[in-house]
């Protein structure tokens, strides 16, 4: 499998009153044209990892890496202008909540068209046709109507599909989805995941799926990285989460209630012991 | 403890809860499950007195509930919300949050009650004068539970109390809710979309869809995969995939 993204010794640091805090502590991983899941709890550094690949860690944060190569492009040497050409066209990000990620005062069709206007030259008419096509590709039944709606007029699930539609026609090679389904209902989750899955399969895209939802990730990804405390503590094959070896991963899996629950109390993570271990 | 009979709730002219009846026994833990828009939270709001436009009857114990909630009733029913950040006043300390209900109801021995409640919900006493932003999500949810228990109600209305928390923190709060119920003989009415949580915490569940109650079943049926309604089974199937 060809490597799309290679990251070595990635660190993300933020200055605080008590000195610099390292939120990502020198992690290394690579991504091919596959679905890679990154799981961990709040504060584990999983979102920071995704954002640093996209060049979205703003000052005063500092990102360093020994190596961060995206399809032959050295991301450690890419400046803001270079990133602007990459983002949207070559790499894209889907955020957790469409409510906060879409521009509330811009019609949906225009928002989707904006990325297209930036990255490709075409007439307004051709652009609209492309946008309608993208809306259809994410299984929106009446694209003409949705084109003219504002973000607050659509449901959460539709909002999330709109966000994915933004990247469909630009066909990025890398998609980073940060909790793309956490704000959605179970029934809509499946739809959104299927659309992303379809993009990976048909267009050979690489997907980094960042989530706290262990079951969903282990069901949908080819490979899983488990993050704790800014480090990757374990890598598992999909569906093998229950064979995990690291105490943190085991602890997380055990602390989930099950449908046929018989335990009187749920086991709780011993954070102090884990931090000593890490 | 709760008797809900042919409850209808309207938002404008739209009925969002349609002819729902169920009852919850004293000491029981009952779950209302369903997806967004199923009306599960609306039922909770009608019970808590947060929506007024309902018809039918709701009774707590032997007391029929009117559309106005009295101060006396608040001592019997309290609520815990999903959003642990939004449900605490950002500029009031834990101590303020816990003593306010006591002040409203003219209950004394505040110090003693606050400290014993902090112990009961597993919050170290050093957190007493902290502000919400100085606490973690799990700690904030503990404060919200503590506040709800300050008036020693018999019934707690729980609206997705753990769905905004990390899984390991969720386990801590679920354990806490379970122990509190055992120790204090509380009755729970829990609204959630998370079926495994129901398995862990509840005795019976009601499945809601488009405002209608599709079925009421014991939790043993949920565990055994033996729900009788089509929609109930569909929910179980989906939750197994994710």
Topology, element by element:
The complex is a heterodimer of chains A (278) and B (242).
Chain A: E1 3-16, E2 19-32, E3 35-39, H1 46-53, E4 62-64, E5 67-70, E6 73-74, H2 80-86, E7 91-94, H3 98-101, H4 108-119, H5 124-137, H6 143-147, H7 156-168, E8 174-178, H8 186-203, E9 206-211, H9 214-220, E10 223-228, E11 231-237, H10 247-255, H11 271-277
Parallel strand pairs in A: 3-9, 3-10, 7-8, 8-9
Antiparallel strand pairs in A: 1-2, 1-4, 1-5, 5-6, 10-11
Chain B: E1 2-11, E2 14-24, E3 29-33, H1 40-48, E4 54-60, E5 63-64, H2 71-74, E6 77-80, H3 94-104, H4 110-120, H5 137-149, E7 155-159, H6 167-184, E8 187-192, H7 195-201, E9 204-209, E10 212-218, H8 219-223, H9 230-241
Parallel strand pairs in B: 3-8, 3-9, 6-7, 7-8
Antiparallel strand pairs in B: 1-2, 1-4, 4-5, 9-10
Percentage of residues assigned to helices of chain A:
25-40%
Instruction: Kindly report the oligomeric state of this protein.
Output: heterodimer
Strand count, sense and closure of the main sheet of chain B? 6 strands, mixed
Q: Which class best fits the helix and strand makeup of chain A?
A: alpha/beta
Shape of chain A: globular
Uncertain segments of chain B of ≥5 residues (pLDDT<50)?
none
| Mean pLDDT figure of chain A | 89
How do the helices and strands follow one another from N- to C-terminus of chain A? EEEHEEEHEHHHHHEHEHEEHH
Description of the structure:
The complex is a heterodimer of chains A (about 280) and B (about 240). With about 280 residues, chain A is an alpha/beta fold. Chain A has helices at about 45-55, 80-85, 100, 110-120, 125-135, 145, 155-170, 185-205, 215-220, 245-255, 270-275, and strands at about 5-15, 20-30, 35-40, 60-65, 65-70, 75, 90-95, 175-180, 205-210, 225-230, 230-235. In chain A, the strands form two sheets. A six-stranded mixed β-sheet of chain A has the order 7-8-9-3-10-11, sandwiched between helices. In chain A, strands 1, 2, 4, 5 and 6 form a five-stranded antiparallel β-sheet that branches. In chain A, a hairpin with a 2-residue loop joins strand 10 and strand 11 (about 230-235). In chain A, helix 4 packs parallel to helix 7 (about 155-170) and helix 7 packs parallel to helix 8 (about 185-205). Chain B is an alpha/beta fold and about 240 residues long. Chain B has a domain at about 1-70 and about 190-240: 3-Layer(aba) Sandwich (Rossmann fold), CATH 3.40.50. Chain B contains nine helices and ten strands. Chain B has helices at about 40-50, 70-75, 95-105, 110-120, 135-150, 165-185, 195-200, 220-225, 230-240, and strands at about 1-10, 15-25, 30-35, 55-60, 65, 75-80, 155-160, 185-190, 205-210, 210-220. In chain B, the strands form two sheets. In chain B, strands 6-7-8-3-9-10 form a six-stranded mixed β-sheet, with helices on both faces. Chain B has a four-stranded antiparallel β-sheet with strand order 2-1-4-5, covered by helices on one side. In chain B, a hairpin with a 2-residue loop joins strand 4 and strand 5. In chain B, helix 3 (about 95-105) runs parallel beside helix 5 and helix 5 packs parallel to helix 6. The model of chain B has no long low-confidence stretch (mean pLDDT about 90). At the A-B interface, helix 8, helix 9 and helix 10 of A face helix 6, helix 7 and helix 9 of B.
């Amino acid at each position: 499998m060809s490597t799309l993204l290679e990251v070595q010794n990635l660190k993300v640091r933020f200055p605080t009153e008590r000195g610099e805090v390292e939120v990502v502590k020198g992690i290394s991983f690579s991504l091919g044209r596959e679905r890679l899941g990154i799981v961990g709890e709040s504060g584990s550094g999983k979102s920071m990892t995704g954002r640093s690949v996209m060049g979205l860690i703003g000052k005063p944060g500092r990102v360093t890496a020994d190596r961060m190569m995206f399809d032959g492009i050295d991301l450690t040497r890419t400046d803001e202008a270079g990133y602007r050409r990459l983002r949207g066209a070559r790499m894209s990000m889907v955020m957790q909540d469409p409510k906060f990620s879409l521009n509330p005062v811009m019609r949906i069709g225009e928002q989707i068209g904006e990325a297209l206007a930036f990255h490709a030259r075409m007439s307004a008419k051709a652009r609209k046709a492309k946008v309608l096509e993208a809306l259809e590709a994410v299984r929106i039944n009446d694209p003409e109507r949705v084109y003219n709606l504002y973000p607050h007029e659509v449901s959460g699930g539709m909002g999330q599909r709109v966000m994915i539609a933004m990247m469909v026609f630009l066909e990025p090679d890398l998609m980073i989805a940060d909790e793309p389904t956490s704000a959605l209902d179970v029934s809509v989750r499946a739809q959104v995941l299927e659309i992303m899955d379809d993009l990976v399969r048909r267009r050979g895209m690489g997907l980094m799926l960042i989530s706290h939802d262990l079951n969903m990730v282990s069901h949908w990804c080819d490979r899983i990285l488990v993050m704790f405390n800014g480090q990757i503590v374990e890598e598992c094959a999909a569906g093998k989460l229950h064979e995990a070896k690291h105490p943190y991963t085991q602890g997380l899996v055990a602390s989930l209630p099950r449908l046929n629950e018989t335990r009187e109390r749920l086991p709780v993570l011993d954070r102090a012991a884990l931090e000593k271990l890490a | 403890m709760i008797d809900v009979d042919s409850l209808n709730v309207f938002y404008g002219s739209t009925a969002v809860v349609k002819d729902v009846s169920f009852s919850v026994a004293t000491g029981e833990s009952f779950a209302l499950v369903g997806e967004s828009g199923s009306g599960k939270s609306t039922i909770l709001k009608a019970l808590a007195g947060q929506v007024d436009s309902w018809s039918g009857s709701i009774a707590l114990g032997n007391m029929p509930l009117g559309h106005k909630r009295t101060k006396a009733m608040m001592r019997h029913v309290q609520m815990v919300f999903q959003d642990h950040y939004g449900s605490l006043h950002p500029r009031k300390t834990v101590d303020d949050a816990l003593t306010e209900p006591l002040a409203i109801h003219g209950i004394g021995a505040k110090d003693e009650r606050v400290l014993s409640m902090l112990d009961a919900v597993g919050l170290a006493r050093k957190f007493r004068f902290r502000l919400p932003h100085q606490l973690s999500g799990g700690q904030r949810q503990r404060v919200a539970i503590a506040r709800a228990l300050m008036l020693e109600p018999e019934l707690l209305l729980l609206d997705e109390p753990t769905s905004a928390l990390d899984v390991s923190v969720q386990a801590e709060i679920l354990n806490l809710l379970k122990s509190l119920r055992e120790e204090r003989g509380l009755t729970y009415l829990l609204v959630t979309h998370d079926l495994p949580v129901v398995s862990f915490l509840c005795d019976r569940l009601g499945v809601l869809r488009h405002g209608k109650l599709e079925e009421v079943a014991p939790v043993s049926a949920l565990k055994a995969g033996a729900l009788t309604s089509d929609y109930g089974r569909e929910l179980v199937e989906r939750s197994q995939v994710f």
